[in-house]
Design goal:
By secondary structure, this protein is an alpha+beta fold. The chain is built from six helices and 22 strands. A twelve-stranded mixed sheet has the order 9-10-11-12-13-1-4-5-6-7-8-14, covered by helices on one side. Strands 17-18-22-21-20-19 form a six-stranded antiparallel sheet.
């Protein structure tokens, strides 16, 4: 089927921006809207079949269809895969907080919980994962990450947020306190308290983030149809117009009947497999059973309350032994606009990465660090570029970081122009 092209008129860009704003404003918490948002990944090329003959729509009409969708009840399975091109650390993963267990303090004691959602992010940042999801409005969501012989579940039910890791028999409990005294808002309206701003996991959440980028720097069109999870869908294609971005294209399969995004695929400008490919393999828009969202810790489960260690931030020490927390990082300065924008920020202490020559890191650790990055220099001096298939970061020797979904050359150019 030939691609559908959007209508060409002088108001198209304004219409697309208006549709994007509406999509953000009318976003509904489907498929664990903030609960699932602590997971990441996606489908290894979800099988799609057929080329359904659907009524022709423009890109603007399809964006409006997403904005108008009001899907608040569903259940189903999502397959998630990510391929950022990161090296495998093997047994070292646990040392970076990705081993699935609780952190250890300096005395060897346990700090935190293996069920804490933050401890699952590293595990889900690569590879393929199967999720079972369910949602019933803004106050009831559940996502389960299915393993070979274990299951990790995150449940939001009213005022309670529970996470349970069957492998360690540990649970993590937090309260969704509802009203925010600063803004007078309900946390539960969109995401449970403490899970705001986490990484998206469902096709709808990915699509909403992509639609926020729709402006004059973006090409948007409807490119045919497909079937996803047995449902007819339109294919919305979003591509950067600017040079220098590592994003090639984003494709969103939009359910023809409900306007719900069913699949999200991000392919890099360099080609090859998708960086993120997320989609439903099975979906039901009926009301899930109320018992789906019930949870009581099994007998013998170690339960950790969020406020027991919620204020303990992860920090690091500079050469003088001063400890810096996450909050010490300054607000980034944004260079450029659109898809080629770059964030510039300063590392605490005004210094670059530690080196073996200065005695700050072991020789073996220095070799690993060197193998992960490329040495570059320019008007800014010298530094190291750490690359993935999507996000690249330049860390200069004077402690300045430039990061974005842009090429290495774009980072070096930005650093030169800043000096």
């Amino acid at each position: 089927m030939a691609p559908y092209e959007p209508e060409k008129d002088t108001s198209e860009s304004a219409d697309l921006r208006a549709g994007r704003r509406k999509a953000a404003r009318y976003a509904v918490p489907i498929a664990v809207a903030g609960v699932a948002a602590v997971t990441i990944g996606l489908v290894p090329a979800l099988a799609t079949s057929g080329d359904p003959d659907l009524p022709k729509v423009t890109a603007q009409e399809l964006i409006e269809k997403i904005a108008a969708s009001d899907t608040q009840q569903l259940s189903g399975n999502v397959k998630i895969s990510t391929d950022l091109g990161l090296p495998s650390f093997g047994g070292m993963a646990g040392g970076f907080g990705g081993g699935g267990g609780a952190d250890r303090d300096e005395d060897g004691g346990s700090e935190g919980s293996a069920a804490d959602p933050k401890n699952k992010l590293m595990e889900l940042a690569s590879g393929t994962h199967t999720l079972r999801v369910a949602a019933d409005g803004p106050d009831k969501q559940k996502v389960s990450v299915l393993g070979d012989a274990s299951e990790y579940s995150l449940i939001h039910n009213g005022d309670d947020v529970w996470a349970y890791d069957s492998a360690s028999n540990e649970a993590y409990h937090a309260k969704d306190e509802g009203a925010s005294p600063e803004k007078g808002e309900k946390h539960g309206k969109d995401v449970p308290k403490g899970l705001e701003g986490k990484l998206p996991a469902t096709p709808k959440e990915f699509a909403e983030q992509a639609l926020k980028a729709v402006d004059d720097t973006t090409s948007v069109k409807v490119d045919g149809t497909a079937q996803v999870a047995g449902r007819d869908a339109y294919r919305l294609v979003i591509e950067p117009k600017q040079a220098g971005s590592t994003v090639g294209r984003i494709t969103v399969a939009v359910d023809e009947k409900t306007g719900t995004p069913l699949k999200f695929t991000l392919t890099p400008a360099s080609g090859g497999a998708a960086v993120v490919d997320a989609g439903f393999t099975k979906v039901d828009f009926g009301k899930p059973s109320a018992s789906t969202f019930d949870f009581t810790p099994p007998k013998g489960t170690k339960v950790t309350e969020a406020d027991e260690h919620g204020e303990q931030g992860r920090g690091f020490k500079d050469k003088g032994g001063k400890k810096f927390e996450e909050g010490d990082l300054n607000e980034p300065k944004v260079i450029g606009e659109g898809w080629s924008s770059i964030a510039e920020l300063k590392l605490p202490g005004g210094q670059g990465l530690p080196t073996a020559g200065s005695g700050d890191v072991p020789q073996d650790a220095q070799k690993l660090l060197d193998s992960l990055g490329d040495q570059v220099d320019g008007k800014f001096g010298s530094g190291t570029v750490f690359s993935t298939r999507l996000i690249n970061a330049l860390v200069t020797d004077d402690g300045t970081v430039y990061v974005g979904a842009v090429t290495k050359d774009a980072l070096v150019k930005a650093a030169d122009e800043a000096h």
